[in-house]
Write a structure and sequence with these properties.
InterPro entries: BlaI_family, WH-like_DNA-bd_sf, WH_DNA-bd_sf. One of its GO terms (biological process) is negative regulation of DNA-templated transcription. It comes from Neolewinella xylanilytica. Pfam families: Penicillinase_R (PF03965). Belongs to the BlaI transcriptional regulatory family. By secondary structure, the protein is mostly helical. The chain has two domains: 62 residues, Winged helix-like DNA-binding domain superfamily/Winged helix DNA-binding domain (Arc Repressor Mutant, subunit A), CATH 1.10.10.10; 53 residues, no CATH class. Helix content is 67%, strand content 10%. It contains six helices and two strands, in the order αααββααα. It has a two-stranded antiparallel ribbon with strand order 1-2. Helix 2 crosses helix 3. The protein is elongated.
Amino acid sequence: MQSPPTASELAILQLLWDNGPLTVRQVHDALSEEKEVGYTTTLKTMQVMLDRGFLTREAQGRGHIYAAAIAKEDTQDKLLDNFLDRTFGGSVKGLVMRALGNRKASRKDIQELKALIDRLENEDQ
């Protein structure tokens, strides 16, 4: 099984998921808005991600365009499952209770959670 993306790799994937295919320069410029990062570091990280199968690359003129090769939802599911198992012993209730206890949920969020719970309960019947 392939190891999950690192935090740096996730930042790059998030940019590609949100914006579509980008050059290394475009990724680097966007990352640099958040924190200082060297261009060669961005390039090397993206090359490693290409080797790991997280990205695809197409030649465009003298440069390359990179795109995410893994789906956002699949990646989130795998990361969440891993986190849930490691941190909460697989307890969905423990995760949700902690999240709701630590953060203020909006009225809309609570209504959507109730609707989800109702739907899940009805599926079990």
